[in-house]
Fold:
Amino acid sequence: MYDLRWIRDNPDAFDAGLGRRDVAPQAAAILKLDAEARANRTALQEAQNRRNELSKQIGAAKSKGGDADGLIAEVGELKSRVQDGEEKERGFTQSLRELLSGLPNQPEDGVPVGADEDANQELRQHGEAPAFDFAPKQHFEIGEALGLMDFDTAAKLSGSRFVLLRGELARLERALAAFMLDVHTGEFGYTETSPPLLVRAHTAFGTGNLPKFEEDLFKTEDGFYLIPTAEMVLTNVVRENVLAEDDLPLRQVAYTPCFRSEAGAAGKDTRGMLRQHQFNKVELVSITHPDESMAEHERMTECAEQILQRLGLHYRVMLLSTGDMGFAAQKTYDLEAWLPGQDSYREISSCSNCGDFQARRMEARYKPKQGKGTRFVHTLNGSGLAVGRTLIAVLENYQLADGGVAVPAVLQPYLGGQTRIG
RNA sequence: GGAGGGGUGCCGGAGUGGUCGAACGGGCCGGUCUCGAAAACCGGUGUACCCUUGCGGGUACCGUGGGUUCGAAUCCCACCCCCUCCGCCA
Structure:
């Protein structure tokens, strides 16, 4: 959501930012509507002002037992003008809201311009791809051979794009989540949260998933949406709040299932558990002072990287191009883990700074210690990490020649000291 | 599912047709006092928008949207949400 006044003062910058995201210029249409709305508002307020004055006079005259018929007649004429102006005002407000709420956030300076992921920039790599003296398998080959990853049974229950994990793999997933939560809460200052997974429409609007991306969400018959990520709930925690400046930054982490309809993803990543309707994720969300969000973005990304590093996984950090960024983001880093079975890097975390974009939609503000009024907070979210995909990465990177899988050292305490699976 | 209660400012909570942007209390900010702090006391403390070069003026907002009225936090209608009790239930 945008600040109209900012668009008024910077129409060219506004359109240029949208242009970098391949959105047609909007400033002229918005400002035309805005000018009409303000003209109407001014006229309406004058009429209201006159009405209020006359009403006071009527009250005064009547309390003295005098005659107010003349005044009542005059105010009667104003009435239709006021009602007409109010109706137009509602129309303008709604039109502007619809127009503005459908536009993506402005990309930060330095974000590469491009149509899709091919324009993403690799910033750095960490670690090295493991060497194998055999042909590394893909995660589903490993899991199915162990009898611990069952797509057929999941399909019997729920159809395609679901998986059922058993035994040591189910436990490995739980171990990964517990490890991630322990690091983020114990070392990085995030507060563990166990949130609702079903939310109402206004919550989905706040993060920018509605109104434009409804088809990506699952919706219940009573009008609830299933969260596609804990970002949606953790961010909306501050919806319509006015926080004290000392409350910032507010750092939360949650381990939750995520539900995605994967509309439009037909034929993409159909094998294995890379792209599912339901997956588990540890999500980080920070609510910050506007001046701190860029530094927090680096910090959050580092927190996510720490998990990969301690798991001994090789990865690279990508700066997403304008065409690959989410609707609400102004800058996004993706962490891509190396998957030897796939012989490619795959996204395992995505860390975004949304600036005040979501805060405006949610009306989430803080009260500065100095000065008057309130300011919008900044919001950031990042996976720390996608647990299902981390499981994939562990399987493919730690696979053994005999079909088993070694357990990374940091996870062994979570598995009763076990050093291998299978 | 049945019955009832309620949504007011940063928070709690009054307010049933005009002088209510809204009592009172808490919090917060400033001051007095103090070596310093606490306590006490004094003062201050809404948001958004419009017009204006400025000084300043004005409008809206008491869950949301309509309506009645010269005038609505207050009356009417619809909707949303929350809570309590009973029932059901992990």
About this structure: The mean pLDDT of chain A is 92. DSSP finds twelve helices and 17 strands in chain A. Chain A has two domains: 4-101, 117-421. Residues 38, 41-42, 44-46, 48-49, 51-52, 54-60, 62-63, 68, 71-76, 78-79, 89-90, 200, 241-244, 367, 369, 372-374 of chain A lie near RNA strand B (CB under 10 Å from a C1').
